Amino acid sequence: SLELGGNAPFIVFDDADLEKAATAAVGSAFRNAGQTCICANRILVQDGVYDKFAELLASKVKALKLGRGTEEGVTCGPLITPAALDKVHRHVEDAVSKGATAVTGGMSPVDLSDPSCAGGYFFAPTVLRDVTPDMLCYREETFGPIAPLFRFREEADAVAMANDTEYGLAAYFYTADVGRTWRVAEALEYG
After folding, report:
1. 19 in catalytic set
2. What integer is the mean pLDDT of 165-182?
3. Is residue 135 assigned to a domain?
4. CA 74, CA 76: separation in Å to the nearest integer?
5. Residue at 90 is within a domain
6. Could you tell me which residues come within 8 angstroms of residue 168 by beta carbon, excluding any fewer than 6 positions away?
7. Among 2-11, 65-74, 109-118, which is the least confidently predicted range?
8. What pLDDT does residue 79 have?
9. Which of 73, 105, 137, 188 has the most other CB atoms within 10 Å of its CB?
10. Which positions ≥6 away from 17 have C-beta within 8 Å?
11. Is residue 111 predicted with pLDDT exceeding 70?
12. Which residues carry out catalysis (predicted)?
């Protein structure tokens, strides 16, 4: 079979080490500007830690340096084509028009008048909160620097949301509960 994309969930349970989970989420969602098929595309966060995790993740994402990969200190580069940039814009605009909020990012550096990104297909690393399953960034692989945050209440809800994709290439989750580790690993449809 061919590997033709992914829509990987990244699940954060309320007993997780949030610092470690946020650091891992940044690495997974923003690696290569979000342009790998195993990037975290949908970050599912349990209600009890949702707000705290959103703040922590946003602070880490704000610290990313956007620019050309040949420049020192750059941690997030350009998108591959104008079409890729358009898709990221479309996903963010769709989410915001349906009630999501950009905690950080949400625009191209052209909008930010950032000279280090002139002439490239750059999009500011973005964290979206209050994202829902009716938004494009839930159904489609964005393939760009976006971390959409979805809420869930119970373990079963997280598993159902995680498995609600045609592209189960990879899945990630953070918990301190060993029993949950085994249950969730068995229940997720990925690989």
Report:
1. no
2. 95
3. yes
4. 6
5. yes
6. 6, 7, 188, 189, 190, 191
7. 109-118
8. 94
9. 137
10. 174, 176
11. no
12. 3
Range of the structural domain that residue 156 is part of: 8-187
| Residue 106 CB coordination number (10 Å) | 21
Q: Give the strand pairing for 101-104 and 126-129.
A: antiparallel
CATH number of the domain residue 72 falls in:
3.40.309.10
Cβ neighbours for 130, distance < 8 A, ≥ 6 positions apart: 99, 100, 101, 149, 151
> Which residue blocks in the chain are alpha helix, DSSP H?
18-30, 50-62, 82-97, 109-112, 136-139, 155-163, 178-187
For the chain, how many structural domains are there in total?
1
Does the residue 3 lie in any domain?
no
DSSP annotation of 75 reads -
Nearest to 94 by CA among 137, 125, 127: 137
Is 1 inside any structural domain? no
Euclidean distance between CA atoms 81 and 70, whole angstroms: 18
What is the identity of the amino acid at 66? L
